[in-house]
Amino acid sequence: MGEHTETLGPYTCETPFERGGGLCKLCRLLPESPQGRKCARLVARSPAMRQLLQRASTVANTDASVVLRGESGSGKEVVGRALHANSARKLKPFIAVNCAALPGELLESELFGHAKGAFTGAQVARKGLFETADGGTLLLDEVAEMPLPLQAKLLRVLQDGEVRRVGESQPVHVDVRILCATHQNLQQCVREKRFREDLFFRLKVFTLVVPPLRERTEDIPMLAGMFLEQEGHRAGFSAKAMAAMGKYPWPGNVRELQNAVKHGAVLSQGAVIELEHLPEELSLPMVAPPPPDEGELVTLEEAERRHVLRVLEACGGQQVDAARVLGIGRTTLWRKMKGYGLEA
Predict the structure, then answer these.
(1) Which among 282, 294, 292, 288 has a CA at the least distance from the CA of 314?
(2) Maximum CA pair distance of the chain?
(3) How far apart are CA 344 and CA 335, in angstroms?
(4) According to the model, what pLDDT value does residue 25 have?
(5) What are the b/e assignments for 167-206, b being 16+ CB within 10 Å?
(6) Which architecture, in CATH terms, is 213-282?
């Protein structure tokens, strides 16, 4: 999980810890997760990530709810796995669910389970993720996209420690630590009446902000090397390729870097990855957006509409990419497009 650099007084050792070497001397977190996936490893050479992990270490071995804030692809789930791996729950399940990926009815069944015959297609009774994660940790990714009625039910579960499967009245006791991840400002969502204030204060016991990759460029060489190792590629990067990766702003963050490394590994066919092997946007100059028309005064709503449409056009109509650039959820973008009279 963790690849940290060792800090001795004011000096920094540039060699990452070997796996299995005990606690990281920097943040006191275990350097590897027994349940982690091959990409669930943290890199912390940059001051921004070191500060984050040192803060995470103070809350890891508790049952406190944590809100993980950060842009899409920045590594919120990986930090969540680190919290789980360094807690007393580490031998129990870690389960993540994307609240934006399912409509409210299916998400309720996914979280709480359902009885046989509770709805069309429910041919057998099924446990929900709360029951499955009993004793462990449940990460609610994109929690700001959860429908308001379901937020009320989630609040009840957090207060009572009990879930009721859809179609059943008998409660089931669960012991689950809750982590939430979002790229949105939950306080702003509360002000906009899109997120319950009582649920917000119930969840926000502790907040960790995961910095975007452009604010921790010192981590790029180690991250790129880690992803290259996962591809089974041993030749490495040329100086030009590494320089380009260091200058690129990475709007898709660590996830985009991982895909860029995969792109380079495929095209290089085992040789040194050159700049031309990387996605073309890394070698193209960044084009500044056109200046706004300062002579025209429009409402805030109209300014937002124009900006959303401009981003959609720049992304070739790809809503997932546009939502990422705008810093909003896919469902939120869909609602805005519907309000603009566009086919979503």
Answers:
(1) 288
(2) 64
(3) 8
(4) 53
(5) ebeeebebebbbbbbbbbebeebbeeebbbeebbeebeeb
(6) Orthogonal Bundle (1.10)
The distance of Cα 113 from the centroid of its chain, to the nearest Å, equals 24
* Residue 106, number of CB atoms within 10 A of its CB: 11
User: What distance lies between CA 117 and its chain's CA centroid?
Assistant: 35
Q: 61-209, what's its fold?
A: Rossmann fold (3.40.50)
Q: How far apart are CA 141 and CA 110, in angstroms?
A: 13
Token match 């309000």: residue? 339
Residue 298 has pLDDT above 80, yes or no: no
Rounded distance, CA 5 to CA 50, Å? 9
One DSSP character per residue, 198-246 reads: HHHHHHTTEEEEPPPGGG-GGGHHHHHHHHHHHTT--S-B-HHHHHHHH
Q: Are 84 and 95 within 8 A, CB to CB?
A: no
pLDDT in tens, 8-48: 222 222 334 334 445 555 555 654 444 444 445 677 889 99
Which helix (H) or strand (E) segment holds residue 6: the answer is: strand 2-8
**Residue 221: count of CB within 10 angstroms of its CB:** 15
Q: Are 190 and 198 in contact (CB under 8 A)?
A: no
Phi, psi of 177 (to 5 degrees): -85, 135
Please write the tens of the pLDDT for every residue from 109-149: 899 987 776 666 666 778 889 999 999 999 999 999 999 99
Q: Which residue has the higher pLDDT, 318 or 155?
A: 155
Choose between 200 and 10: higher pLDDT: 200
Please give the radius of gyration of the chain, using alpha carbons only, rounded to the nearest integer: 22
Nearest C-alpha neighbor of 49 from the set 207, 179, 206, 218: 218
Residue with tokens 């012991």: 175
Per DSSP, the three-state class of 88 is: coil
